[in-house]
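Tutorial handout. Part one gives the primary structure; part two gives the three-dimensional structure as tokens.
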Amino acid sequence: MFCRVLSKTGNFARVNNFRASFRPNIGGGSTSRSCSGSGNPNGSGNPDGSSNPDGSSNPNGNGQFANGENDADGDRYEKDIKTKILKSSLPHVSLHGWSRDTVAAGAEDLGYPDTVHGLFQDPGAELALYFYSASNDSLSRLLRDGTLVGPNESKAELTAFLTNTIKTRLLMLQPYLNQWPQAIALLSKPSNAPHALSNLMTLVNDICYYAGDRSIDTRWYTRRIGLATIYKSSELHLLQDKSQGYDDTWNFVRRAVEECVKLDTMLESNAQLAKDVVTASVSTAKNILGLSWNR
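Part two.
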């Protein structure tokens, strides 16, 4: 397994070696290199055996490493490599699920060695998180460019907008519906749940914003918790839906949104009720979202 060479060492040669180790295998042959040393056969960063043109062993030639710059450069490079691999891995989910094998297959498609999955602590979960975040970005673009038109003042338009937006986001799961229960299980693990929750809250926050919500009181919380609960409940409903065109799920979404809009109208005129709902909703939402583990 490839070791993770890009630790916070500030060693310039190790950054060069990381790039060399995971360069796509265009011309054939092995792309694997040792995690120590550099990309050059002589084990240094330059052909003459030094890591600097002046013959010194330090990048800036004055006995000091440019730690911050090299670390940042290496972090960006690693992040770019990982993103490319995860994107390339998605077509393999239907065959291997959300797993290490899927990520290895995606790496091979790009010409990287299959052992590159060693860059990922939890390959399957990181792939599911990447897909979730990428889907959120896709929905955000649809909202931003007006493909999904926001509501005016009427409750009917608000209900239609929320229903259609949730439906659009849920349909992004369609290529992976058979494998999505595995993703839910992975993202419910304590080590992954905070990232999954962050992705979910990004989703509902975008929807609320484009629905016209600018609240700064307790309704900010109730609306987002309510919408998150509707989304996760609808997601579970979709996984079991055998109806034509998922009609049962869309009817479920519409009814849930209608109830949520009615509740929001009630909370506008009753501040104490709003606070009570927030308290009760947090506990309920944690259970629905799969966050009720023991710390």
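Part three, for discussion. The chain has a mean pLDDT of 76. The chain is about 60% helix and 0% strand.
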